[in-house]
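FW: tagging you since you asked about this chain on Friday. Here's the raw sequence from the shared folder, copied in full. Didn't touch anything.
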Amino acid sequence: QGVTIVVDDVTEQRRLQIVRETFKRYLAPALVDRLLANPDQITLGGQRQNITILFADIRGFTTFSEPLPPEQLVDVLNQYLSTAADAILEQEGTLDKFMGDAVMALFNTPLPQDDHVLRAVRAALTMRAAVALLHEQLPEPLRLNYGIGIHTGDAVVGNVRTEQQMNYTAIGDAVNLAKRIQENASGGQIIITDQVYQQIRKYVMVNPLAPLRVKGRGATVAA
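HL: got it, structure written out here
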């Protein structure tokens, strides 16, 4: 019995370590602590669920980067990415990944958030405000803006892995649409789909857009 208890205890400790190592790179510290306190709330495999997805991409970054030395470019990029990451983690979103000068974030995963749609929009607004403050510290040639897109819908969320690497992410049409919406946003603009708006209409003021045509879709998208 003593041996069995020790083995079970080691197994549980290993499980908690997996949770910690998996999510500490993506989540606010408070959220990681809640996961460790209740690890049964999370399954590390893929599962279908309703989430809100935020994509943010720095406009004009390729042209902007051409004349800069690499060291300065990395320094400037890190400042902008930090504003995005801080805004997402402040709303307890999951920082899915950085893709060059772009950021992907998920809400309502790995732990449920009843107000996940609103959290995503608040993160976008905070991000835009933080960039405006950053501009006060940077010379005009270094002032850039994010184009942001937000959509909510079902996706499969979990670990995508190979033998060498494992990533916690979301896959599905809702994710693709969020990215396509972001591609239509100009610098400083936040575009949300109608599905997002219907859930937060009591809390925000918006300017309606003409239906968008996005890459890979025949039908227009209400935003």
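FW: The longest helix spans residues 2-23.
HL: agreed, and The first strand starts at residue 47 and ends at 58.
FW: great, closing this out.
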